[in-house]
Amino acid sequence: MRRILWAAALAVGLAFSLPAAAADFGGDCCADLEERVAELEATAARKGNRKVSLTVYGQVNAGVLWTDLDNNIGNDLSKDATITQNGVDPSFIGFRGEGVIRPGWVGGFIIEVDLRQLDIGNSGAFGDASPRVRQSAVYVSTPMGRITVGKTGQATEGFDEIDLSQTGVVARTLSIQPLADTYLTGIDRPWWDGTYRNVVRYDSPSLAGFMVSASWGSASGGGDNWDVALRYAGEFGDFKLAAGLGYRHDEDIVVDVLDVTTIKIPLGDDTRNVILASASIQHSPSGLFLTGEYGDQDWSGLDVRGWHVKGGIEPRLVSAGRTSFFGEYSDQKFDSGPGNDLTIKMWGLGIVQSIDAAAMQLYVSYRVYDVEDTDISQVMAGARIRF
After folding, report:
1. What is the maximum alpha-carbon separation in the chain?
2. Which of 307, 299, 175 is nearest to 249 (CA)?
3. Model pTM greater than 0.90?
4. What is the average pLDDT across 208-223?
């Protein structure tokens, strides 16, 4: 028995000594490891301090655009094929930082820079995508809501994104993109949704699916810009629903018209009041969806009304992700008095294929605009990938 105990003790001692001997590869191993760690630290992105977390996010959305402007009215605006950024949902990069003040209280910032393909001279020549700071703001989130100060979206910004399908990557309600970026100096819809401005904004907590937002900022020409919005998101059995209702008052001085060669689209100037309503519903098992938006603008001597409906189905036909088939129709009317009406109508078709493994969507969209009996047709094919 005693011999057995001595043999066991000897075996245990050898077991503990072997790993130490096996790990002794020489004195240079630690130096090599420290050098490699130093290289990784030198090439890694680092935060300025340990109190604020930093998140980098964004997307790239680009493709090929074909345009036919009624057989080259006025000048050479028709394009066989042009590589361009997609103005429907532009490429951008964002930085968000947050630090915990106390439980339930968070202080943070957001900076976003997007890329737009603007033809400012209305010459039909596509330039390089130009960076633009669209958000640069700080915020404080509390149990009572979030307050944001700086350049950020107005309360009614993003109403065209109230869409439960994935087709917003290439077709948004009451939007005339990518036509706006390529031929209308970037002016879209005309400004139905709120935009990115220097404002103070408040967003309430979500209560039973409802959220209230409000923003205020001084106008560049004097006066005030302010708006309020009510949003809702919820589910009822197999159906998902999202909706929004907003009102905006702007006092910026803006251009009188949009110029598409010989086509003049009046916009008015000075003060305007905008009413927006948007909704989207989707049947989850089948993928059937319907999205729409209505807008009413009152300018000095100019009334603008528009509506847009988009519907389709997005089943999962392949393992890669959902496939969306959709059709859309839009009607916008500019009324500046008896006999001075102008109407822009649009219809379109498209398909979007999601690639879940790469956070990517591939898409093709065809749109035909009818501006006072002048047809403008566009085909956009491309891809968006998010990170």
Report:
1. 116
2. 299
3. no
4. 89
> Residue 90, preceding bond cis, omega within 30 degrees?
no
The residues facing 299 across adjacent strands are: 302
DSSP 93-138: EEEEEEEEEETTEEEEEEEEEEEE---TT-SS-----EEEEEEEEE
**Helix, strand or coil for residue 169?**
helix
Written as one string, the DSSP assignment of 313-344 is E----BTTB-EEEEEEEEEEEEE-STT-EEEE
Looking at residue 285, its amino acid is P
Read off φ and ψ for residue 362, nearest 5 degrees: -100, 140
List C-alpha distances in Å: 325 to 282, 317, 370. 14, 11, 23
Beta carbons within 10 angstroms of residue 31's beta carbon: 10
How far is the C-alpha of 250 from the C-alpha of 386, rounded, in Å?
33
Task: Read off the pLDDT band of 146 (50, 70, 90).
Answer: very high
Give the 3-state secondary structure of residue 79: strand
Q: Distance (Å, rounded) from C-alpha 322 to C-alpha 310?
A: 17
Give the Cα separation of 22 and 74 in Å (integer).
Answer: 82
pLDDT on residue 165: 96
- pLDDT, tens digit (0-9, with 9 covering 90-100), for 18-39: 444 444 444 555 667 777 766 6
> In the chain, which ranges are E strands?
53-69, 79-85, 91-102, 105-116, 130-142, 145-153, 196-203, 210-218, 224-236, 239-250, 257-260, 263-266, 272-283, 288-299, 302-313, 323-335, 341-355, 360-371, 374-386
Average pLDDT, rounded, for the chain = 82
